[in-house]
Amino acid sequence: MLPATETAGEAVLKQRLDALLTAARENEITLKKFQTLELELMGSADLPTLLERLLRNAPERFDCDVVSLEIFDPQFEIQRVLIEISRTLESQVLEIIYHDNQQHFLSLYEGLTIPVLGPYDPRRHADCFRTTGVPAPASVALLPLMRGQEYLGSLNLGSRQADRFEAGSATDFLQHIAAVIALSLENACNREQLKHLGLIDPLTGINNRRYFDQRLPEEIARARRARQPLSCLFIDIDHFKRINDQHGHLVGDEVLRTVALRIREQLRSIDFVARYGGEEFTVLLSGTPEKLAREVAERIRQRIAGAPVNLLDQATLSLTASLGVGTLNSFPTDQSTGVLAAQLVKLADTALYNAKGAGRNRVA
Predict the structure, then answer these.
(1) What is the pLDDT of residue 5?
(2) Domain ranges in the chain?
(3) How many other C-beta atoms can be found within 10 angstroms of the C-beta atom of residue 44?
(4) Domain spanning 30-197: which superfamily?
(5) Do residues 286 and 222 make contact, with C-beta atoms less than 8 angstroms apart?
(6) Domain at 209-357, CATH from 2.170.120.30, 3.40.50.150, 3.30.70.270, 3.40.50.720
(7) What is the pTM of this model?
(8) 19, 138, 166, 309: least CB-packed within 10 angstroms?
(9) How confident is the model at residue 88 (pLDDT cuts 50, 70, 90)?
(10) Residues near 220 by Cβ (< 8 Å), separated by ≥ 6?
């Protein structure tokens, strides 16, 4: 009987050893897979590339059914960068959710800075995934993306298997990959900010003439492909030289900042405004026909004139502006993008000239 007992023990030991070897091989494969991901993320040249590499084939990469990325973006900077420098992300099924405050992450992680694994709770996790039309996951792994003690965002993994993500399992490994993602995300955002410093007007914080000149051909090419109209507004602050002469350049600077802000308030996220030069601004309205562009211009005119500017000495200054609207409805194939860009600028500039000649404080 003794040899039989030893044989049974050996079998159990062999079974355990085989299980350990299988787990080791699986861990080695997983480690190599995520080492490849780390190198891809750290080598990303820009923010869109980083996000595309992180979320491309993400369910297969993370062995789950749904993946989402939540980003803390209080000033709309990341969204604006993605809108302005790349449209490639829009056509992909990438789950990116933006938040303008830290409260969501504080509630989600209860102040912790380590991954949270466990069953899906619709009360806590519904905002982490857009599950409309698809089954909600049964278990989740939430990876906090940290900068010190501040949440940059959260990478959320969801599985329909209830035992896929269990509390306490592989948290060290997940915390490591979360730290790599957070560092890569912060570096990519910093690079984009540096890249765009030369395209931003430092006084008003909006895009400058150089950016407008770069963006206009891109918008015309996009409008041509989509067969949609493209409208351009030219906006000129009425009697700005008089403001500078009577009140000084500090007041003139405050007027420019105020007008830039009031213009931005009337625009969609896909539109953009630039300071064209001096007291003149320009706006591009994607997919916008002339009638709607005139309505946007009129809203801007009313907003600029609707409230005085508060000056440093508690005095106020009333403002008005003249606006010109130009629209391209067709994009002949025998005309280059540069030619069409010049035509659109001329249309808007001529309309502005007409508005000023007709008495100012109006749209033409």
Answers:
(1) 54
(2) 30-197, 209-357
(3) 19
(4) GAF domain (3.30.450.40)
(5) yes
(6) 3.30.70.270
(7) 0.54
(8) 19
(9) very low
(10) 230, 328, 331, 337, 340, 341, 344
